[in-house]
Amino acid sequence: MRVLFVCLGNICRSPTAEGVFRRRLEERGLAGRVEVDSCGIGAWHVGKAPDPRAMEAAARRGVDLSALRARQLADGDFARFDYLLAMDHDNLAAIEARRPAECEAHVGLFLAFAGYHGRAVPDPYFGGESGFEEVLDLVEAAAGGLIAELEARLEPSS
């Protein structure tokens, strides 16, 4: 199973989601069975580490984002990933605009897995520290729902 988190620049929301989700997979013993990555719609930050504010907020919750580097959504991602999860409606529209007709991946808003249908993870980039805490709260809520879905889809390990 492969999951890709997508935001605008891949330095705030999607790397936070990637880091939190990796930790949750480890806690559930699924780290070796689910591949996780993140990317951005735009290329502004390719190769850069996550925003220092995102890294600090995540670190306060025990999540290390320091090894992550931004990358842009690639055409091959549509065949490689089973889930392409957008942080907001603009990201979702950009994914859908590039989505090949033969793509069978689940494409949608990440917060749907927290029961927040139609709700977006707000971009904290131009705000204060509290925005990064809100992102973490929302990502943690949705991560649980996505884990539950993946556990139901994964065959029991032998």
Automatic annotation (TrEMBL):
InterPro entries, per database record: LMW_PTPase, Ptyr_pPase, Ptyr_pPase_sf, Tyr_phospatase_low_mol_wt
Active site as annotated: 7, 13, 123
ATP-binding keyword on record: no
Protein name: protein-tyrosine-phosphatase
Organism encoding this protein: Halomonas heilongjiangensis
SMART domains: LMWPc (SM00226)
Main EC class the enzyme belongs to: hydrolase
Family: Belongs to the low molecular weight phosphotyrosine protein phosphatase family.
CDD domains attached to this UniProt entry: LMWPTP (cd16343)
E.C. numbers: 3.1.3.48
UniProt keyword list: Hydrolase, Protein phosphatase
Taxonomic superkingdom: Bacteria
MF terms in GO: protein tyrosine phosphatase activity
UniProt keyword annotation of Nuclease present: no
Domain Phosphotyrosine protein phosphatase I residues, every copy: 1-149
